């Protein structure tokens, strides 16, 4: 991962979403170089519905796809900006599977039959913010794992395991250090089941990025 040293205009840089270079300020401001060492790598999956810099499409509905409702322009208290993603899982086992999930794919609906992988070798983790409507929602998130003629380089997918959400925005990350990210068309995945959420669940996601 490329790393750089952030400096003088760090605050301005943060405010305007950019990063500014320079080294002389560490001494002046008392910051050690390590404290200000940050990654410049950023590959967003989703930040805002209006962002032209989003990658991957939540097109790969799995399991009980009839139990899923997704709103990518939810304006109810987003983590940042004007929009976040809201997913409702109704746990009705509409297709008889008792679980459901969505792969974020590139391009849309690519289950490994189209040459659509991104080289994300510069990343060491996937980060995202999540919360549940009530708290206690049990869900799992993954990266990679799509296989086919054009398989993801990341096999098997790397998973969070089942995590229990709270009703407050919370940051999560999937450690990808040392993983082969040279070809990823399944950039993100959400999965849940009736066993874990017998009454269904409502979850929110925002700021999903490879860093
Ligand atoms: Ca947002």
Structural class: mainly beta
CATH class of the largest domain: Mainly Beta
Distance between the terminal alpha carbons, to the nearest Å? 9 Å
Oligomeric status of the shown chains?
Answer: single chain
Uncertain stretches: 1-28
Which structural traits does this protein have?
five-stranded antiparallel sheet, Jelly Rolls, mainly beta, 2 helices, 211 residues, 2 domains, binds calcium ion, six-stranded antiparallel sheet
Secondary structure layout plus pairing:
Blueprint: E1 3-5, H1 10-15, H2 25-29, E2 37-39, E3 43-46, E4 57-63, E5 68-74, E6 84-89, E7 99-105, E8 125-132, E9 138-143, E10 158-164, E11 170-175, E12 186-193, E13 201-210
Antiparallel strand pairs: 1-2, 3-13, 4-7, 5-6, 6-13, 7-12, 8-11, 8-13, 9-10, 9-12
Bound molecules: calcium ion.
Residues 47-48, 78-81, 83-84, 206 line the site of calcium ion.
What does this structure look like?
The chain is 5% helix and 39% strand. It is globular. It has helices at 10-15, 25-29, and strands at residues 3-5, 37-39, 43-46, 57-63, 68-74, 84-89, 99-105, 125-132, 138-143, 158-164, 170-175, 186-193, 201-210. The strands form 3 sheets. Strands 3, 5, 6, 8, 11 and 13 form a 6-stranded antiparallel sheet that branches. It has a 5-stranded antiparallel sheet with strand order 4-7-12-9-10, with no helix packed on it. By secondary structure, it is mostly beta strands. It has 2 helices and 13 strands; from the N terminus they run E-H-H-E-E-E-E-E-E-E-E-E-E-E-E. The protein has 2 domains: 1-40, no CATH class; 45-210, Jelly Rolls. The longest helix is centred in the first third of the chain and has 6 residues, at 10-15. Bound molecules: calcium ion. Calcium ion (CA) is lined by residues 47-48, 78-81, 83-84, 206.
């Amino acid at each position: 991962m490329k790393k750089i040293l952030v400096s003088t205009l760090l605050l301005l840089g943060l405010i305007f979403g950019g990063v500014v270079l320079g080294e002389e300020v560490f001494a002046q401001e008392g910051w050690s170089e390590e404290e200000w060492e940050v990654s410049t790598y950023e590959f967003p999956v989703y930040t805002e519905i209006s962002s032209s810099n989003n990658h991957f499409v939540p097109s790969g509905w799995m399991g009980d796809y009839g139990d899923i409702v997704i709103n990518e322009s939810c304006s109810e208290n987003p983590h940042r900006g004007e929009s976040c993603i809201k997913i409702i899982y109704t746990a009705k086992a509409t297709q008889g599977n008792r679980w459901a999930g969505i792969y974020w794919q590139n391009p849309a609906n690519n289950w490994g039959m189209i040459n659509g992988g991104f080289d994300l070798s510069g990343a060491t983790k996937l980060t995202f913010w999540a919360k549940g409507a009530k708290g206690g929602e049990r869900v799992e998130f993954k990266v990679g794992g799509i296989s086919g003629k054009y398989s993801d380089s990341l096999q098997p997918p790397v998973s969070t395991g089942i995590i229990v959400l709270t009703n407050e925005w919370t940051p999560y990350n999937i450690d990808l250090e040392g993983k082969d990210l040279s070809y990823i068309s399944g950039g993100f995945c959400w999965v849940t089941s009736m066993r874990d959420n017998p009454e269904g669940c409502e979850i929110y996601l925002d700021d999903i990025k490879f860093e």
